[in-house]
């Protein structure tokens, strides 16, 4: 199974295809197929039938918009805007190391 350069939750940008330039978070990674599902990118319309009540409950029918997987080579990983750790950023006077 190949290793992907992106994982679930990463911020990525599409670099090729019809949604070139679009940015979004990875919802799902599929390493076996070398594909990822990106939030709001490569939207498709899937039609479903109305189902009767059953163990999972009733489902509404009709067209539903959902994201389709795209190949991992068509996305590049972007740096996150917010820092991952909970440490506060150092202030300028603390960084210089001067004691009063």
From TrEMBL:
Feature: compositional bias, Low complexity: 51-65
Q: Which residue stretches belong to region Disordered?
A: 47-100
A UniProt-annotated Pfam family: KOW
Sorted alphabetically, the keyword list is:
Ribonucleoprotein, Ribosomal protein, RNA-binding, rRNA-binding
Biological process according to GO: translation
Keyword rRNA-binding found: yes
User: Boundaries of each KOW domain copy?
Assistant: 5-32
A GO MF term: structural constituent of ribosome
Comp. bias regions, Basic and acidic residues: 77-94
Report if keyword Ribonucleoprotein is assigned: yes
- GO CC terms, sorted: ribonucleoprotein complex; ribosome
Q: Which Gene3D superfamilies match?
A: 2.30.30.30
- Per its database record, what is this protein's job? One of the proteins that surrounds the polypeptide exit tunnel on the outside of the subunit.
**Family as reported in the entry's similarity comment:** Belongs to the universal ribosomal protein uL24 family.
The record's annotation in NCBIfam families points to:
rplX_bact
**Assembly with partners or alone:** Part of the 50S ribosomal subunit.
Identification of the protein by name: Large ribosomal subunit protein uL24
Gene that encodes it: rplX
